[in-house]
Amino acid sequence: MPRTADAIIIGAGVMGASLAFHLTRAGMQRVTVLDKRGLCGGMTAKSGALVRMHYTNEPEARMAFAALRYFQHWKDIVGGHCGFTQTGFIMTVTPDNAERLRHNVAMLQAIGVNTSVITPQELRELQPLAQVDDLTVAAYEPESGYADPIATTTAFMQAALRQGATLRERVEVTAIRNAGGRVVGVDTTDGLFEAPIVVVMAGPWSDRVLRTGDIDFPLTPQRAQVAFYRRPPELARGHMVFIDGALGAYFRPHGDALSLIGVGLWKPEPRPDPDAYNETNDPDFITAAQARAARRLPSLRLAEYARGHAGIYDVSPDTRAILDRAPGIDGLYMAAGFSGTGFKISPAVGACMAELITQGRATFVDITPFRFSRFQEQQPIRGAHEYVLPADFGHRI
Ligand SMILES: Cc1cc2nc3c(=O)[nH]c(=O)nc-3n(C[C@H](O)[C@H](O)[C@H](O)COP(=O)(O)OP(=O)(O)OC[C@H]3O[C@@H](n4cnc5c(N)ncnc54)[C@H](O)[C@@H]3O)c2cc1C
To answer: 162: which of 32, 127, 192, 282 is 20 to 30 A away, CA to CA?
Structure first.
């Protein structure tokens, strides 16, 4: 197994796999991915994996829009399958947010997203069993849906391996090594690996990894839960994907029989350790999540709990990702802080980071708004018309 590479990627989640695919596709010969657990051993496997474009800020919307093409044409672009299921997507907001929603839909339309503002009656036509009395408007995206996060990551990695990448599982990076202001490799539980380029894509562990290179990466870990319920016969044919801002829940079908329901931040909790936290559902979460979703789709009241889990969001100060070079160490890059919204943009993150590394700048999508220095510059990513919602999703929409 080679111990010298052109680039080392720390983390074999969906981001690391996407970057390995894009770097090798760009012709980089020796790309080594290291993971202390294994492929998809982190938060990607826990993802709700909603694929939607509705954001209140343009930079993230552009990333999501660019990534949609991958999900739609996965076989041609990456190979294998990603489990993308086009269901249509609905964003609801409380009536006091209706004007904001109109502005946001106009912003999304201007960048090319297929979306429209719909009335409650139109929502009922699209989703016949929906209860819509509390709504004045909603946003609709016919092309959105959800994907399979494990299949997506596996397909990215298999393509990267075919293109020459190496995956080393159960190898933990213990320190980033640099000499004279340049990265030279990483120390691991399996010895030294050398490379002139190192990319930290370690999910909620990214701040710990970067601290070994004396970089203070501002991440707050937050525990978030999702639960799966057996759909009752009335919903046997499935339903659309919802981010129900009005009710404080998101939900989507999960294959033929289940629905996934999440609520983002459930209750204030002490700072979790991503290596040791309660990975199961809180009993009161199971009933509360179901009750919220059932206010929109009343048939879900009859759904039976099947299983569920908790994961950790890696939350930056503005809840948006940091995609950049690391300050002060040439050759060191970082992509983390995705909170609960990274999966859907992962194809674009890999494409943009590969361009940043190989060409010095990303053109697939402009990632300068995601720069590390934005917090110091008091330039956080903010939407012009952010919603003021009754529930906290753990990240801004
Ligand atoms: C409950 C939940 C629901 C979500 N729902 C959605 C959604 O609906 N839509 C959406 O777009 N996004 C969603 N997300 C967010 C999305 O899943 C994440 O943004 C994305 O999966 C992050 O991928 P990653 O590769 O950055 O991190 P991870 O998948 O966490 O991968 C990081 C990897 O780094 C490895 N690692 C860590 N430290 C080291 C080390 N020292 N040495 C070597 N390896 C190391 C870990 O083992 C891990 O495999 C959700 C997240 C959660 C938790």
So the answer is: 192
Query: What percent helix, strand, coil does the chain show, rounded to 5?
Result: 30, 25, 40
- Of 350, 344, 363, 347, give the one whose Cα is nearest residue 323: 350
Amino acid present at 309: H
Regarding the beta carbon of 347 and ligand 1, being less than 6 Å apart is answered no
Q: Across the chain, how many H-helices and E-strands are there?
A: 9, 20
Q: Report the atom number in ligand 1 closest to the C-alpha of 209.
A: 41
Count of C-beta atoms within a 10 Å radius of residue 140: 21
Percentage, residues of the chain above pLDDT 70:
99
pLDDT tens column, 270-325 = 999 999 999 999 999 999 999 999 999 999 999 999 999 999 999 999 999 999 99
Name the residue range of residue 101's domain.
84-144+220-313
Residues 74 and 156 in one domain: yes
Closest CA relative to residue 350, chosen from 29, 66, 59, 4: 66
- 42 close to ligand 1 (CB < 6 Angstrom): yes
User: What pLDDT, on the 0 to 100 scale, is given for residue 264?
Assistant: 67
ipTM: 0.99
- CATH number for the domain harbouring residue 110: 3.30.9.10
Q: Structurally, how many domains does the chain consist of? A: 2
